[in-house]
Amino acid sequence: MHADTEVLVIGAGPAGAAAAAELAGAGVDVILADRHTFPRDKICGDALIPDSAQALTELGLSARIAALAAPAEGLELHAPAGDGVYLPVPVACLPRRRLDAELVAQACERGARLRVPWQFTRLLHEHGEICGAEFRPGAGTAAASGDAELEIRARWLLLATGANAAALSAAGTCTRKQPSAIAARAYFRLAPGRRCERLYMLMEPKLQPGYGWIFPCPGGTVNVGWIYFYDNPRLPAEQNVRRLFERFCRTSAIARHMLDGAAMLDDVQGAPLRCGLTGATLGSERLLVLGEAAGTTYSFSGEGIGKALESGGLAARSVLAARRCGRPASAGANYAQQMEARYRARYLAYKRAQTWLARAPIANLIARRARPGGYISHTLQAVLEERAGPDALLSLRGMLQALVRH
Q1: 222 domain-assigned
Q2: Could you tell me if 324 and 341 lie in one domain?
Q3: How many whole angstroms separate alpha carbon 138 and alpha carbon 116?
Q4: What are the backbone dihedrals phi and psi of residue 3, each rounded to the nearest 5 degrees, phi first?
Q5: Domain of 334: which CATH number?
């Protein structure tokens, strides 16, 4: 089976769907392909922090997502010793099963053509240039139709295949196969009378380095998870993330209280993450790599929805610029240059912050000296709102400031 389009977007997560929506809205013929049918689950914390909210506003989806998401009054961080820092920043949570389906729906409403479930296998080349991609049937309707393969010819290809290093390798863009981090997650329905109104990020002393989370979701449910980063100065003694998740639920006082009498709604599921804007070539001529495939998840925090959406928009605008000027091969280089210029310094700062917070005494010191409205709380809130980078606090100068300022 064959199809032709101007832009082929492979992967319909936040980055791919955002790119398809912007391109289709500008009148470009777009095919959005994915190996799953939607809605589908995705292992994630589901948190929509300020950069996600801003990106959704720019996509015109802010009100639509806000009507579905569970709002939270802020974020509460707990150091290994137990001291907490509360940041009153408006945030929300919406399971990726619903969020991604809404993003895909918007792309289709704007005119993108959805092709699912099809698994990317390789790029197609003609006269030495990328000219499309080949897919094999995924589980479900495509396989049942009897089609052996699907070839889609396109002028530009946007690769948004998430943490799947196999897809990057097949496209010849992978520079690191090992993931940057691994996380495990499960959903629970809280017992009657229990409420979760904040995002909790909890460091446990016997499980370091890494952190657990408890995030409120719609309908009295919570998203509970644990994450650790392979790039930490040291790895946790226990490296089975599911066992770390189980120990977190047993040993964290906040988790024990929150989950007392709660009903577990699904099995614990694990997934790798690609972080730090590393692990892939971002762009080459007509091929652009975006979202988690490009490593747009932050080190230290593991947050990635907002930057995935932003990378999708930037990729779309790079293609539109190349289309207008009649230089299709300029899209990849332009996109890569803009990603580097806009984000490289911030991702390096998050990587350094990860190294600092892997040391429990530093995390404990920050939490112990923090007070509402004080220097540390103000700086952490500025980091969360992206008015400052994490090195404003988690650097030698930042730590000296934390010691002398209140």
Answers
A1: yes
A2: yes
A3: 8
A4: -150, 155
A5: 3.50.50.60
Q: List the pLDDT tens digit at each of the 406 positions of the chain.
A: 899 999 999 999 999 999 999 999 999 999 999 999 999 999 999 999 999 999 999 999 999 999 999 999 999 999 999 999 999 999 999 999 999 999 999 999 999 999 999 999 999 999 888 999 999 998 765 444 556 899 999 999 999 999 989 999 999 999 999 999 999 999 999 999 999 999 999 999 989 899 999 999 999 999 999 999 998 878 888 999 999 999 999 999 999 999 999 999 999 999 999 999 999 999 999 999 999 999 999 998 999 999 999 999 999 999 999 999 999 999 999 999 999 999 999 999 999 999 998 899 999 999 999 988 899 999 999 999 999 999 999 999 999 988 988 7
What tokens appear for 403 in the block?
Answer: 């010691």
The answer as to whether 382 is a domain residue is: no
Helix, strand and coil percent figures for the chain, each rounded to 5: 40, 25, 35
Q: Tell me, yes or no, whether 259 and 316 share the same domain.
A: no
- Per the structure, the complete domain to which residue 260 belongs is given by 51-92+179-273
In a domain, 399, yes or no: no
Q: Does 189 share its domain with 314?
A: no
Residue 182's DSSP bridge partners are 228, 272
Same structural domain for residues 205 and 288? no
* Calpha distance 120→137 (Å, rounded): 9
Rounded Cα gap, residues 405 and 389, in angstroms: 18
Produce one character per residue of 152-187: b if its CB has 16 or more CB atoms within 10 Å, e if not. bebbbbbbbbbbbbebbebbebbeeeebbbbbbbbb
**Total domain count, the chain:** 2
**Same domain, yes or no: 61 and 31:** no
- Could you give the CA distance from residue 241 to residue 131 in angstroms, rounded to a whole number? 40
3-state secondary structure of 224: strand
Say if residues 286 and 155 touch (Cβ distance below 8 Å): yes
Q: Do residues 234 and 348 share a domain?
A: no
Distance from C-alpha of 133 to C-alpha of 180, rounded to nearest angstrom: 27
Please tell me the distance from the alpha carbon of residue 366 to that of residue 117, in angstroms, as a whole number: 47
Residues 250 and 120 in one domain: no
State both tokens at 286. Answer: 């007509």
Cα dihedral 160/165/171/176 (nearest 10): 110
For the whole prediction, is pTM greater than 0.85? yes
Domain boundary among 244, 273, 302: 273
